[in-house]
Amino acid sequence: DIQMTQSPSSLSASVGDRITITCRASQGINNYLAWFQQKPGEAPTSLIYRASTLRSGVPSRFSGSASGTDFTLTITSLQPEDFATYYCQQYHSYPYSFGQGTKLEIK
Amino acid sequence: QIHLVQSGAEVKKPGASVKVSCKASGYIFPNYGITWVRQAPGQGLEWMGWISAYNGKTTYAQNFQGRVTMSTDTSTSTAYMELGSLRSDDTAVYYCARVWPIDYWGQGTVVTVSS
To answer: Strand A102-106 to strand A10-13: parallel, antiparallel, or no bridges (unpaired)?
Structure first.
């Protein structure tokens, strides 16, 4: 099974900051990597797929990138609505595993 | 607009089964698959498996093999997930989502397993 290791597990930042969340796959996944945002008490929403393709309607301050088995989610100029938990998921090999999540909190 | 609307909360006793529905609208149902993901209280997301709404082919995560059955009814554009032999650690919110990759999510169904 492919393990997805997300870091950090939690992060404090301020409105206007730039932050990066990393997801590392235990083996190659050919960029079949998605990012999701989840706010407390709500279903997740989809942000990015194929490592770097932004979903329609997602603000351009969100971006994704890949380097081998390392994937990053970057949010520039944090907005109040961005404070949430973020998950990555690989959909290359079964089981399609998620990272453990990164909770982004207001400093 | 595309919507996935799930059935309501369930309370079940250990050993029982639960069947959650996920009604799709706004797109051609057989053209996509449906995956199921669960989230235990205060925990992360866990992938359970998926079903092709085109041909009904299923792939289940090993953790759920033998206990889960996913199905679809194309006449009503509805997907179902049935989990049997429930235990207290099956208490979670269960989500359906359209795939692949995941784009739209259902609102979630709370399943509580308690004696």
So the answer is: parallel
Residue range A24-74, pLDDT digits in tens: 999 999 999 999 999 999 999 999 999 999 999 999 999 999 999 999 999
**DSSP reduced 3-state for A82:** helix
Contact B102 A36 (CB under 8 A): yes
Separation of CA B26 from chain center: 19
The SS3 assignment for A85 reads: strand
Chain B environment of A47 (Cβ under 8 Å): none
CA B57, CA A97: separation in Å to the nearest integer?
20
pLDDT tens-digit map of B70-80? 999 999 999 99
User: What does the alpha-carbon distance between residue B19 and residue B17 come to, in Å, rounded to a whole number?
Assistant: 7
Question: How crowded is residue B1: how many other Cβ atoms within 10 Å of its Cβ?
Answer: 6
pLDDT in tens, A65-82: 999 999 999 999 999 999
How far apart CA B63 and CA B1 sit, in angstroms, is: 34
> Given CB atoms, is A64 within the 8 Å cutoff of chain B?
no
HEC-encoded secondary structure of chain B: CCEEEECCCEEECCCCCEEEEEEEECCCHHHCEEEEEEECCCCCEEEEEEEECCCCCEEECHHHCCCEEEEEECCCCEEEEEECCCCHHHCEEEEEEEECCCCCECCCEEEEECC
